[in-house]
Amino acid sequence: MVGKICVIGAGPSGLSVLCWFAKMSREGKQIPEIVCYEKQSDWGGLWNYTWRTGSDEHGEPIHGSMYRYLWSNGPKECLEFPHYTFEDHYGKAIPSFPPREVLFDYLKGRWGKEDIKKYVKFSTVVRDVVYNKATDNFTVSVKDLVKDEVQDSQDFDYVIVASGHYSVPNVPHFEGIEKFPGRVMHAHDFRDANEFKGKRLLLIGASYSAEDIALQCLKYGAESIICTWRSKPMGFTWPKEISERPLVQKFEGKTAFFKDGSQAEVDAVMMCTGYLHSYPYLRESLRLKSKNVLYPPGLYKGIVWQEGGNNKLLYAGVQDQYYTYTMFDVVGLWIAKYIMNDGISLPDAATMDADWKAWVARNKTLKDCMEEIDFQTDFVQDLVKEIGPADYPYDLDVKEMFYSWEHDKDVDVLSYRDKSFASKFTGTKSPIHHTTFMKALDDSLQTFMGN
Ligand code: FAD
Ligand code: NAP
After folding, report:
1. 3-state secondary structure of 227
2. pLDDT band at 112 (very low <50, low <70, confident <90, very high)
3. Taking the CB of the first residue and of the last residue of the chain, which one, N or C, has fewer CB atoms within 10 A?
4. Ligand 1, residues 36, 163, 213: which to mutate, most atoms within 8 A of Cβ?
5. Nearest Cα to 107, choosing from 161, 66, 60?
6. What is the residue range of 160's domain?
């Protein structure tokens, strides 16, 4: 039996690990001692919305990248827990694309089913993790942010890295941007779209943040939005206020110059250029280095770090995400069963090596979002298979719903959130929301539920 494990981060990934261990304990199994360190003062990770940007009250970098008025960008039926459905939580069926607060409430309901807060040391940031070869364990150093005190370091048998990868912004440089006479920012610091009312906005990037922030800003009154792309445009049929242009090359004053020779005057620039995997508290041999991809390298089953730590350093939730809550759910259970030596064991090093390399190679061949959806479905289903039907008797494959969602976006990016999907687990088709997404300015739980 394992002695002691450390979980870094109390977001959806870390809490999933805690929930499964707590369930095992509730069922009478002897579980290891667990300590979860969380630098924020409450649980939820990115879902724990903050108005702050820059640094927090202790001078730590702000983790939150979520903004006010954020609504789910995928159908909730694609992330629904099979063992705790939205109907279980809300006592009725609700529309398919809820705002942030409604999804967070649902998550809190699932976490509240187990007694897990007792494992979490809040306002405690992990500063250093070392693997000790001689003793085959880890030494973890943390700081209590409230007391402003570095604590005595502790030893752990396993470390689970669940600190997220959408918090450290990727901020490229563009010629002349240092003299741009207006707001220049990254999406990480975006909070309230009202700030851009009546403004001409330039968004750099062509992925989910650019797409969603363009719609948000239009909804709350921006005059115009240009999205500028590097590899390929998003290609949606945009309303007249939103357009796409090839990558901006330089700025002169307020004028942006694009690769196709065109130019435009803008009032603000927002980089929707994604995030960096960043694990500053891990020693070099333990540190994952990757772009935001569906299968980062060096991880058996997308979880077990291969380059150091003797298979006892586990990463949770490091994949780019179509599947979210359900993927974190099975990653958490796989980890708990592996640590408990409960039906999951590792093959030899050569087999693990070949396994993750095959996934990474396949990841590189994916041509479009449909193939990406298939890939992540296979990844999730592979973990479910390893866990076994006795512990996870659910089919999480929702690729058909993801295909419909992608199709709806292609048909009309303004109204795809007004569609309704049926729950895979209850069969209930969601009601249509009382207000269409582009008209729903109040995103509160109370208003959303008042239909
Ligand atoms: P996080 O939620 O990032 O949690 C990581 C936790 O680790 C945080 O609490 C952080 O404080 C803590 N931590 C970090 N470093 C340390 C340290 N050194 N010491 C101690 N604690 C530390 N998903 C959806 O399903 N639906 C959506 O609508 C959706 N919208 C999104 C919108 C935005 C703008 C972004 C960026 C992501 C969105 N996501 C969405 C995806 C999101 O990544 C997941 O839903 C989920 O939050 C990931 O959980 P996580 O636990 O892996 O990471
Ligand atoms: P992302 O998906 O990693 O995309 C990053 C984008 O930035 C890509 O278009 C990339 O272009 C571009 N880029 C990177 N470096 C660049 C450079 N130097 N110059 C020009 N362009 C550059 O990141 P994201 O869009 O921020 O999404 C992150 C996560 O947040 C996703 O999981 C998403 O689902 C989530 N999110 C959810 C919501 C919501 O639910 N409402 C809203 C926003 C975000 P290339 O293609 O050329 O690499």
Report:
1. strand
2. very high
3. N
4. 163
5. 66
6. 4-168+275-401
**pLDDT digits over 64-102, tens only?**
999 999 999 999 999 999 999 999 999 999 999 999 999
- C-alpha 218/C-alpha 202 separation (Å) is 12
Instruction: Indicate whether 451 belongs to any domain.
Output: no
Domain membership of residue 249 (yes or no) is: yes
The verdict on the CB of residue 209 being under 6 Å from ligand 2 is yes
Report the amino acid identity of residue 348: D
Q: What is the pLDDT of residues 422-449, one digit of tens each?
A: 999 999 999 999 999 999 998 899 999 8
State both tokens at 280.
Answer: 């500053």
Q: How is residue 433 annotated by DSSP?
A: P
Q: What is the pLDDT of residue 450?
A: 82
DSSP 292: S
> How far is residue 320 from each of residues 373, 376, 414, measured CA to CA in Å?
11, 9, 24
Residue 389 beta carbon below 6 angstroms from any ligand 2 atom: no
Dump pLDDT digits (tens) for 374-386.
999 999 999 999 9
pLDDT of res. 33: 98
Q: Are 290 and 297 in contact (CB under 8 A)?
A: yes
250, 338: one domain: no
Q: What angle do CA 328, 42, 149 make, to 5 degrees?
A: 115
Domain count, the chain: 2
- Which of 271, 287, 318 terminates a domain? The answer is 271
Verdict on whether the full-model pTM lies above 0.85 = yes
The reply to whether 106 and 225 lie within a common domain is: no
- Kindly state if the Cβ of 273 falls inside 6 Å of ligand 2: yes
